[in-house]
Write a structure and sequence with these properties.
CATH topology of the largest domain: Dihydrodipicolinate Reductase, domain 2
CATH class of the largest domain: Alpha Beta
Distance between the termini: 51 Å
Number of helices: 8
Order of helices and strands: EHEHEEHEHEHEHEEEEEEEHHE
Shape: globular
Number of strands: 15
Mean pLDDT: 96
Number of domains: 2
Strand order of the largest sheet: 14-13-12-11-7-10-9-8-15
CATH superfamily of the largest domain: Dihydrodipicolinate Reductase, domain 2
Strand content: 25-35%
Oligomer: single chain
Length: 301
């Protein structure tokens, strides 16, 4: 199998190394020829001058370029019936996302979106346990990365957590409150969002790319239970009141590699072995929610 990667930046490199470790031949292209050639040599793959040249040589393509370029590149591959894994965000405009879904349906071509957190073992465990949550709080903050400068923090970081809410709850919010601030860019760099759902659950999300410390944490309250998941450490804790006593349980995963799991699912989808739960149709509601937040957000400063 051959998989092409469009974009030899931070995410493109991660994908290339994972694919190579799985014994898959990697083709690489980037507008910066030197970067693409270097990466292809490092993974024992092939450098290709332009993504159009992937058309007759690969079984699937991963798009890891700036978000504003996703639609144009994806459209080309869909018109040539090539399966895709597109890094998040899928696109930066609602009409572009709707067009990609239409093309994917028309051509019957699988399109996956890089919502990698769905593959975290802690999220898999929570998916089995969460039934009627009443409050969910998520923090995803860290230092300024110096990348993804063509989008704000809602599409850059918070989108992961909006997708997790959709994955865990399966319902759309009935009300949205959002406030944010521009700090280093012309887009929102720090945002707080409060969502209320028809089931009665309330969620508070904070995303920042201008924080000194890095934190990626999810907390869920459900009846007399409380769950706390730290993404980087791969540790999930639960606290439950049972017969008047506080019962504590901890899950700790030695290996947390959601990206590897995501790539394995993409490869299986390309082979026709399974349908993916990160297909564009399955994850688009979370992107649509991100667009709604951007339409309603109040920017201060």
């Amino acid at each position: 199998m051959r998989i092409g990667i469009v974009g030899a930046g931070t995410q493109g490199k991660k994908h290339a190394y994972k694919l190579s470790s799985l014994g898959i031949e990697v083709w690489v292209t980037d507008i910066e020829e030197k970067k693409a050639k270097t990466l292809s040599q490092e993974v024992g793959g092939k450098w290709v001058e332009s993504f159009e040249d992937f058309r007759k040589g690969v079984d699937g393509v991963i798009i890891a370029t700036p978000a504003t370029t996703h639609y144009t590149i994806a459209r080309f591959f869909l018109e040539n019936s090539i399966p895709l894994l597109i890094e998040k965000p899928l696109v930066v405009k609602r009409e572009e996302g709707e067009e990609i879904i239409k093309l994917a349906r028309k051509r019957a071509i699988p399109v996956l979106v890089g919502m990698v957190e769905r593959f975290h073992p802690g999220i898999k465990e929570l998916k089995k346990r969460i039934k009627e949550p009443i409050f969910i709080e998520i923090h995803r903050v860290g230092p300024f990365p110096g990348r993804s400068l063509d989008i704000g923090v809602v599409l850059d970081l918070m989108l992961h957590d909006l997708d997790l809410l959709w994955f865990l709850l399966g319902e759309k919010p009935s009300s949205i409150e959002a406030i944010g601030a521009k700090v280093f860019t012309t887009f929102e760099d720090i945002v707080n969002v409060r969502l209320s759902f028809p089931s009665g659950c309330v969620s508070n999300l904070t995303a920042s790319r201008v924080s000194e410390e890095r934190m990626r944490k999810l907390r869920i309250f459900q009846g007399r239970e409380y769950y706390s998941l730290s993404f980087p450490e791969g540790e999930l804790k639960s606290y439950k009141v049972k017969e008047g006593e506080l019962e504590k349980k901890t899950w700790k995963w030695k290996e947390v590699d959601p990206l590897k799991e995501e790539i394995i699912e993409f490869v299986s989808t390309v082979k026709g072995e399974k349908k993916s739960h990160i297909s564009v149709e399955n994850v688009y509601p979370s992107l649509d929610l991100a667009f709604q937040i951007l339409e309603k957000i109040r920017i201060v400063g």
